[in-house]
């Protein structure tokens, strides 16, 4: 790939929006809340209580958890502000960070995420 094509490819990543959607602040907040809460809010407290053995410590963890969720929200808000016209989650950032070999890192990330989410969901039950 010559220098001119490489510059075009990088500018194409920043400009185009193949899915036709934009990520707004409200949608970023709702996505993060949905990922953090999900169905785990019903299944995880018993597991945590069995692990820590104390209701007081369970409440401490429940008070600390929103701080970690807020950190995740801040990271994704920063990513969204870097590419405001693109949607696609982590794939957008991975394509920009690792352009060669094309699609290797995003596909590897997607496969790993799917495999680990299946393993974790089975383990929690």
From TrEMBL:
Transmembrane segments: 23-43, 55-76, 103-124
Primary site of residence: membrane
GO cellular component, one term: membrane
GO MF terms held by the record: L-amino acid transmembrane transporter activity
Domain of life: Eukaryota
Localization per Swiss-Prot or TrEMBL: Membrane
Xref: InterPro entries: AA/rel_permease1, AminoAcid_Transporter
Membrane topology of this protein: Multi-pass membrane protein
Keyword annotations of the record: Membrane, Transmembrane, Transmembrane helix
PANTHER family listed in its UniProt record: AMINO ACID TRANSPORTER, METHIONINE TRANSPORTER (EUROFUNG)
Protein's name according to its UniProt entry: Amino acid permease/ SLC12A domain-containing protein
